[in-house]
Specification:
By secondary structure, the protein is mainly beta. It has one domain (13-283): Jelly Rolls (Sandwich), CATH 2.60.120.10. The protein is built from 1 helix and 24 strands. The chain has one helix at 272-283, and strands at residues 13-18, 20-24, 28-34, 45-53, 63-68, 71-79, 82-86, 91-94, 99-103, 108-114, 121-129, 140-144, 151-155, 158-164, 166-167, 170-171, 182-188, 193-197, 203-215, 222-225, 228-232, 237-254, 262-264, 267-269. The strands form 5 sheets. Strands 1, 13, 14, 17, 18, 19, 20, 21 and 22 form a 9-stranded antiparallel β-sheet that branches. It has a 7-stranded antiparallel β-sheet with strand order 2-3-4-11-6-9-12, with no helix packed on it. Strands 5-10-7-8 form a 4-stranded antiparallel β-sheet, with no helix packed on it. A hairpin with a 4-residue loop joins strand 7 and strand 8. The longest helix is centred in the last third of the chain and has 12 residues, at 272-283. The protein is globular and about 55 Å long. It starts with 12 loop residues before the first strand and ends with a helix. The structure holds cobalt (II) ion. Cobalt (II) ion binds at residues 63, 66, 68, 73, 110. Residues 63, 66, 68, 73, 110 line the site of cobalt (II) ion.
Length: 287
């Protein structure tokens, strides 16, 4: 019988990281929070970008054709529209509040372009590693429109959109991901607090994209402001309290893989040999 340990420790903030400005694709300006010299990765997560601008010059160039192999890209839109297409004829339109969970597996070549010429473009791209056994799996898309992402009411002034995982009796629409991730978009009103249950052995980070919170148990809670990522210790929950004005944050966790990572640009494999193979396959048109 599985017994939930109510006394299991509340997670604490072990490290805070602020993103750095970067540019990717054909010149899209964004903030890279993970996948930098400061924070290379947090197993199984490899990268987190926040793009947020109402200046079309920052995003209009988009991301022309580029390959991926060996991991997953997750795009979560808060505002704006992105059009997606790949070399296998798949197309999709990502609107505000929608998510695309793409399992690149053995490889795809795709492009992403804004479907707007003005206005705010705001969202996140997350890279999630695949275990060695799944790196050459068939590519798979889970394109989830905004109205298919359920919201869990978690108490006074606290709610969350559930992209994947289960919280407050609500299960997210993204399923069958190797690292058994959770991905919640949590909203707390001014002064609201919540003890958020989490899979105890997962590596979990949170990233505050609006307002500020304190995270961690009373006495050792730390403040996390807009634009900061907090890496958490292990434990079965994290205590969150919004400061004045409330807070919005993503809470993301996954089962650590504990495997060697060989990474070069858009390819993430286990060995350097496999990276060379990925380049060969890409040049030969085999992705
Ligand atoms: Co891409």
């Amino acid at each position: 019988m599985h017994v939930v340990d109510e006394a299991a420790p509340s997670r604490t903030v072990v490290r805070k990281v602020r993103g750095q400005p970067t540019s990717d694709g054909a010149g899209v300006r964004m903030t890279r929070v993970m996948g930098t010299p400061m924070l290379d990765r947090f197993d199984p997560f490899l990268l987190l970008d926040e793009f947020r601008s109402d200046n079309p010059d920052d995003y209009i160039a988009g991301f022309p054709d580029h390959p991926h192999r060996g991991f997953e890209t997750v795009t979560y839109m808060l505002a704006g529209r992105m059009k997606h297409g790949d070399n296998q004829g798949n197309t999709g339109l990502l609107g505000p509040g929608s998510v695309q969970w793409m399992t690149a597996g053995r490889g795809i070549v795709h492009s992403e372009f804004p479907e707007q010429e003005e206005g705010l473009m705001w969202g996140f791209q997350l890279w999630v590693n695949l275990p060695a056994s799944d790196k050459l799996t068939a590519p798979r898309y889970q394109d989830i429109q905004a109205d298919r992402i359920p919201e869990a009411a978690l108490g006074d002034g606290v709610r969350a959109r559930i992209i994947t995982g289960e919280l407050g009796g609500v299960t997210g629409p993204v399923t069958d991901i190797a690292t058994e991730p959770v991905y919640y978009d949590v909203h707390l009103d001014s002064g609201a607090s919540y003890s958020l249950p989490l899979p105890a052995g997962h590596n979990v980070f949170l990233y505050v994209y609006d307002g500020s919170i304190s995270a961690g148990p009373e006495g050792s809670a730390r403040r996390v402001r807009r634009g900061e990522m907090a890496l958490l210790s292990h434990g079965s929950r994290v205590d969150l309290a919004a400061e004045y004005g409330g807070a919005r944050l993503i809470v993301v966790g996954g089962r650590p893989l504990g495997e060697p990572v060989a990474r070069y640009g858009p390819f993430v494999m286990n060995t350097t040999e496999e990276i060379y193979q990925a380049f060969d396959d890409y040049r030969a048109g085999r992705l």
